[in-house]
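A reminder before we start the practical. When you read a complex entry, don't treat the lines as separate problems. The point of joint prediction is that each chain is placed relative to the others, so the output describes one connected object in space. Small molecules and nucleic acid strands, if listed, are placed in the same frame. In the example below there are three entries. Take a minute to note the order of the lines before looking further.
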Amino acid sequence: MTTLGIDGLNVTFSTEDGPLHALKNVTFDVPENRIVGIVGESGCGKSTLINAILGLLADNGHIDSGSILFQGQDDLTTLSPSKMRDLRGPRISTVFQDPMGALNPVISVGKQMMNIQYRSGLSKEQKAQRAIEMLELVRIPDARAALARYPHQFSGGMKQRIAIAMALMMEPALLIADEPTTALDATLEVTTIELLKDLQAQIGCSVMFISHHLGVIAELCDDVVVMYAGEVVERGTTRQIFNDPRHPYTARLLECDPARQSERTRNLPTIPGEIPDLRARPPGCIFANRCHRVRDACSAPPPDTDIGDGHFARCIVAETPEPAQVTA
Amino acid sequence: MAEIWRPIRKILREPLGALGLFLVVLVIFGAVFADFLTSYDPTRINPRDRFQGPSAEHLMGTDQLGRDLFARVLHGGRIALFVALVSTAASLAIGIVLGLIAGYGPRWLDNLLILLFDAMKSFPTVMLALALVTIMGPSLTAVMVVVILVTVPGYARIIRTQTIALKNSEYVTAAQSMGASPARILRVHILPNVIGPLVILASMDIPVVIGIEAGMSFLGLGVRPPTPSWGSMLNDGFTSIRDTAWIAIAGGVPIILTTLGFTFLGETLRDVFDPRLKGR
Amino acid sequence: MLSYFFKRLGLAAVIVSVAMFILFCMIYLIPGDPAAVALGPRATPEMRDALREAMGLNQPIPVQFWNFYSSAWMGDLGTEVLSGRPVLTVVLEQLPFTLALIAGGITWSVALGIPLGCWAAVSRGSWADRIVGILSVAVIAVPSFVIAIYALLIFAVQLRWLPAIGAGEPGNLGDQLTHLVLPSLAVGLGWVGYIARMVRASMLEVLEASHIRTARAFGLPDRMITYRYALSIAILPTVTLLGVGIGQMLSSAVFAEIVFARPGVGKLVYDAILTRNFPVVSGTVLVTTVLFVLLNLLADLTIGALDPRVRSNF
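Here is the predicted structure of the whole assembly.
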């Protein structure tokens, strides 16, 4: 069973300069008990995607078409706000990027963790006990005393672990992790990733892991979704994406990853050009203006080419693999 | 001509700005053309006609001495606007000079001035006014001195902050290295950059100034009788509040309309021309 | 915590000292003879000289300042001209009435301002938001004594709902409270506007914060998010604002006391001016200034008590 099935999702924002097409025909699945990585540069629509799933789009945002099927039954695009609120937290929970700001600064950690359980019907002591268990699980020292403390009294790494504890406390079916390690330094990043992996196995939930850090994605995720300018340009298993990228954007993205540079270079490779203005999307391929394999046919909307074994790329040349070395 | 009309059109596009501008123009018009708008002498006592309500003869009625209230309202507007204009201009001038000195001058002088400003601000306005009037005696000058003492620290502080920020900016450093004198740097490079926001803030302070004048005159510490002032009219109305409400209305409504007019206009000016100041 | 407290207390002492110096300069250096002011126009030159001698006005100015300064710190603000009672005693007798008035003003402003600001922020852009915005600006702009007189005119004289003069029967709390309603409204109404604007602005800022997004993502009820997660942070700046506002409320209180014929330091100083009771004027100005500085300090410390982030920085 798939935990989350997104199909043909389109989201627009009405702005002063006209409608902004933020997500275009987004389709992918988050299967049960798997970790799906979402990769893309800033502005690729990751945050919009999360907000659309959580039903927290800004007032000027609107889902035009498509569906977000949760556990095969509820379509999150049509669910009433109160039903949606009941799902958020207990069934779908989220860890956000900024550990410094993600917790309320004037409410103690314990109180915040107990507030989250307001629907559980547990007694005050039981709620506190559950909070302590979770804090111990994420290895917060002296968990009982930690309940009475305030967020600013913890380090950044600890705050992020507390945020993870809060997110997993209700044993959700889906955890959305929005760049949870970006604000942490490298060693903390590794421990946090491992912790997340452990907990996922323990609780048995699905995870949607958003990051622009390819190394972390390769390490952690089972499947990968590559986003560019509000479109899913390529999706498949981690092995397929990293070893056999078919969309030129994925290929360039992997080349540009500093961790993959085998030689010392003065200039890190970059993809020339800029993301097109989403208020005036080109009729054809969204990546055409920056693509090194562009051809005339790219001015027509590209199909989602099925490469096999669940590997898809939104590109007309996807059936032939990337040439071995691109001369820049 | 277009240079003048563009900002005015911008203000008129905001409903509150348009209302504010209308009220301000109305008050100024009434004050300037007071002599044409009424033939009554605002100080002429006429005991036979005292405590009259509004009528065709006396548009707003008469006070406890039979003076025409409409004439007093119009002439009172002259006093209010005169005080507002003169003392705000003086405060701005003094505030700018002190602020530039504090911001550009030596550190010890800056600290000393800041301490003085803070101490001035720690007097409750009315207490300061009362103390001053005890010594100087009630007069229009006393009112203006109070206004200056109350508003200068605020202006000076803003100028000081801006000056310090600009002092370290590249173009000022460049001018310094080319041997420009401090006076020239202040005049050419710093002053033009700080004056805009300050004028907007000062225009927003005009209601406060009008309030101080009216308040002191209300207490009998400002404009001396029989000169008409909205504040002293309000006091007349207060004294005879059980006989008639018309005097209190004639004294209070112009204060309300003027302060509202200048406030709405000032807020719109700020929003339209300097949104950075919005937090204030 | 303690070192912070003492630092703030020291700064307050310096500010009060400078304020005393300014007051001294105003009294003694501005043209005009305090002895002549105190005695009035009918005094003989001999009487003036005698009083000058008694007030120490013939001594060199630095000595005069030192005398004024040191005795003020010891609580000696001089004696009242008519009764010969210590000024400090006279002022402290009247102070509770003024403090009650200010407390009433704060009650009005907080009780109306915080809900209005919060409501405006939650329904941002609606007609309710606009009306609250315009009303806030309006009540800030109109001087408090105009509000005092119109409150008197409408509610006491015309409608006769509430008493017009005095502070109520001593010992009868209910009576005292009904006498407090109108004057404290006049003192606090402008601050309803200030606080509503402030709460609205900071509420909008807090609602954008990422921890509010987290709270939403956990499906917490909107009421809990608005009141416990956002408002508890958004009201913190109002405490500082009120600390600054107390100075203005003291000013408004002077008018309210005169209009409603209430006892208090405002009435005291006003009557003192009319009777040329000069030491009472300077003494009251000094006491209210100290009070203002202290209440500002108190506001800062309250912030510390309310905000755990500040608390641990002490």
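Discuss with your neighbour: Residues 114 and 126 of chain A are 9 Å apart (CA to CA). What might explain this?
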